[in-house]
Design a protein that fits this description.
With 349 residues, the protein is an alpha/beta fold. Helix 8 links the parallel strand 13 and strand 14. It is globular, with a radius of gyration of 20 Å.
């Protein structure tokens, strides 16, 4: 079978290798679609805490090709599935408390071990999730990022009628906006790109704020609008989905007293956090990483909004053009949402 192997910084080799053996408790999944995210770009740039060479790809969907003899998992050959890429030890304190997404020994297919940019992959049966009949298999590859957005929203304990500020209208921010809107929350979105904010309105945002990098946010025109939409108190919930340090600083400054902040954007950079605002406002600041078995919920969210999900997918590349896809992500010369890699099997489905 053919695999795309990231062998060193910004270098991919296409290699032929034997198909994986069928292990007990596993299924073989023929990969059809893989979507890329910022983590994939960092791995390709060799700017991520993992070892190369590596077969990347952790957001994916495919079709079950074989199931280990003697297993009765509720799946059959030919089933369309999305895959939870998280690997947890099951023994550490977070795992034993039900928080396996922050396992102290956490792994992830395509990030810390070989993933889905290959034709056939062996997957534990408990990582498989059926794709709803009405959901196209290519959109189903986004079940994992949808689950990340839903995990972040759930961490924020939203209530209908509240106002939330979502900082960052990339795919996770947009999917969080969609889910918050379903829950009856009024959502204001902020981003540095107008085309993303235009999409945020389609995803349910009641207003948007264009951020000028390096300038005060909100500016003199935006501050009164934000005050009017939050009765002068600030949003009860802020979702930080950029990973930019100043964005977290803004979240702490803008959130209402007794409010909640969810940090889902990831960055190794340091933020200048106010040691006064956090206790004075008695804020709840929470991190959010991956998800706790929410891929079925993510697939259901995508199924309820297929046109919006399709709008997230701005580019498609064949596996052979994977290097070109990464260069596009790196250069940011075009309006980019989710990039889909169509595997060889996708063309014969």
């Amino acid at each position: 079978m053919l695999s795309a192997v990231t062998v060193s910084r910004e270098t991919i080799e296409f290699r032929e290798s034997p198909e994986p053996a069928l292990e007990p408790g596993h299924a073989l999944v023929r990969v059809h679609n893989v979507t890329l995210c910022g983590t994939d770009l960092h791995i390709w740039e060799d700017d991520y805490p993992t070892e190369l060479p590596l077969i990347q790809g952790h957001e994916f969907s495919g079709i079950v090709e074989a199931i280990a003899t003697g297993n009765t998992p509720g799946f059959a050959m030919g089933d369309r599935v999305a895959v939870n890429p998280i690997i947890s030890c099951g023994q550490c304190r977070p795992c034993l408390s039900g928080r396996y997404n922050v396992c102290q020994n956490v792994g992830c297919l395509g990030c810390y071990s070989d993933g889905a940019l290959t034709e056939l992959i062996s997957v534990p049966l408990d990582k498989l999730h059926p794709v709803p009949d009405e959901l196209p298999l290519d959109i189903a590859a986004m079940g994992e990022p949808a689950s990340i957005a839903m995990q972040a929203v759930n961490r924020g304990r939203p209530e209908a009628g509240e106002t939330a500020l979502v900082l960052g209208s990339g795919p996770v921010g947009l999917l969080a906006t969609l889910y918050l809107t379903e829950l009856g929350v009024k959502v204001i979105c902020a981003d540095t790109e107008q085309h993303r904010l235009d999409l945020a309105i389609e995803f349910g945002a009641v207003d948007t704020l264009l951020v000028t990098p390096g300038m005060e946010f909100p500016d003199a025109h935006q501050a009164p609008r934000l005050d009017a939409m939050t009765d002068g108190y600030g949003p009860q919930l802020v979702m930080e989905a950029t990973g930019v340090p100043s964005s977290l600083e803004n979240a702490i400054r803008l959130v209402a007293s007794a409010g909640r902040i969810v940090q889902v954007g990831i960055s190794p950079r340091q933020a200048n956090v106010s040691m006064k605002d956090i206790p004075y406002k008695e804020l709840d600041i929470m991190g959010s990483r991956m998800s706790l078995n929410l891929i079925p919920d993510g697939l259901a969210l995508l199924s309820r909004h297929p046109e919006k999900a399709r709008a997230l997918m701005t580019h498609r590349f064949a596996l052979a053009d994977l290097q070109q896809a990464f260069h596009l992500m790196q250069g940011r010369t075009e309006k980019i949402g989710k990039i889909l890699i169509e595997m060889p099997a996708a063309g014969v489905a």
